[in-house]
Structures are given as structure tokens and as C-alpha cells.
Amino acid sequence: ARIRIVLCQNCNLPEALMNKIAEDQHDEVRFSLAQYASLSENLMRKLAEDTSVWVRAGLALNPRLPKDLMEKLAEDQLLVQVNMADNPGLTVDLMRKLAENEEVQILAQLAQNPHLPEDMMEKIGTNKDYTIRTCLAKNPYLSEELMEELVKDKEPIVRARLAANPRLPERLMWDLSEDKWYDVLFSLSQNPCLPKALMKKLAEDKTVEIRKNLASNPYLPVEVMRKFAVDQDIEVQKILAKNSRLLISLMRELGKDVQFHESLARNRNIPRKMVKSFARSKDCYIRAGVARHPKLSYSYMQKFVEDGQIVRESLAQNPELRAGLMYYL
Q1: What would you measure as the largest C-alpha separation in the chain, in angstroms?
Q2: By the 8 A CB rule, do 296 and 275 touch?
Q3: Model pTM?
């Protein structure tokens, strides 16, 4: 069942295989399929009648649901309604309808919906329940005025979630970098849109977790990459090895040490020569890392179909995997 769940995340899943998976006896497999963006309308309608509430809840997350199915699922059980509130394709009318019952779980999901209208954002921003404000702080389409209010929120978790918001203005990022709560700084270091000057400042932090978060940032300045490549903590180096924009020269340097091979194998931008080398590894975790790589040759894909479970699961995620091999998995 695990491999079929992973296959449901592959963008090249053929329709015939979708139809087969829709009959799977495991609810979790049908739950994964229901979220597949390219699901046919016929299959959506079939899954909307599924006896499992989990499957219908999965379908509620599908961004390409027809309007009538959205309306149907918005009347379903609470679990389904909660997921429906998080659907990026949800109409404004349905957002307002779902908000009427004032369920905390539903309001929390609506709060982070990127298409939430501004008047609803403002109303939710004053909600007394901090979990709702926390979810609102994640919304990338918050107005600058609301962000300024949330920066001053009395709950650290709200400020922490705001710190990771990719659309946070630079001046508010600097304000939050002085916050006394560690969780705020931790979240800020996860923000992919940090200015270079702030990245350089955080790179000097003595806390390993801060540096680990920074190491995964694809926009990391070259001088910080070089610094992290020789960081005293090996976990910082391993995370840097997975960074998709890591300099080829640093990939090769880290590749000289076998303890970084598993991390490098998961980097989608390693050179083809390195892909081939890792595909021959005796370590199943290294082979699993490279099994999802788009540069993996068809001959190795054929070999990996007969490999162990962990390698086959990774292969199922490969965007270049051909339909014929999917059936073998």
C-alpha cells in the first residue's frame, strides 16, 4: 500500500492506473489518490460518494474540484469541511458559508487560505483564539497592516509563524530578528526570502538548529555556503549537501566524504556522473536518494523496480518514471 500511496504523488500517473487505485481496499491509498490534481471528473464524483470519511476529506483538498462537488463536501462531516476550508480553489461564497458556524478548526484552515478576502482576514485577525491567528500569520497574502499587528501579537507562536511568512516585509524581518523568544528566531531562519544581510547575521548564530534551517535556503549567499561546508556540526553540512543551489565545486568537495553521499543523492542538481556513481552504491539509502532523481537513466530505473522497498518507494516519486514501470511497482 505504501508504494501505491507514493505513486499517487507522481505527476505522470496514467489514467488507467488511477482507475485501478480508486478500487484499492486501503482507505489511505484512496485518500492519496483523491488529492491528485489531474484526477478525472468521473473519478472525483466516484470518490465523493466513498463510504470512508477520510477519502472524502482527501478529495476536499483537491484544487480542481468542480463547484457542485465543493458545495456537496462543504455540507459533509466536520473533518471534510475542515479540509474543504483549506482548498485553494474554494469560492468566496463557500468560504463565508463555512465561516458561519464559527468552528475553530474551520476558521483556522480558512485563515491560511491564500484566496481569503481581505475583510475576512481582518475579522479573523481579531479572533481571541490564538490558534486561528497563528494560522492567519502563515497566509502569504496578508496585508502589510495586518502583518504589523501580528508582529506585536502577545502570543510568541503567532509571531513565530509570521516570521516564516515569505511575503513578510524586510523591515519586519529585522524587527523579529530581535525577538526574545527562540521560536521566533527559529522560524525566521526558515523563511526562504530572507535578505542576504540577515542570512549572514543568522549564520553566525551559535544555535545549530538556526544554522541547519539556513543551510537549506536556496538563496544562501556563496560565502555562507562555503562557511557551512566546513561547519563544526555535521548535520549543518548534510543539510547543505541537499541544497538545490549548492555550488558544483562544493558538491564535489563534500562528495569526497562518504558520510555526505546520502544527502547529496537527494540533491536534484547533482551532476549526472554523481547520479550514476550513487546508483551503483551498496547502501540502499543512497540508492533510495538517487532513485527519485530526474537524471537517473532508464536502465537504473529498471534495476530499481526490483530493489528493496525503500528504493522502490523513492523511485515511485521520480517525475521521469515511465508508466510501464509504474505497473511493476
Answers
A1: 59
A2: yes
A3: 0.86
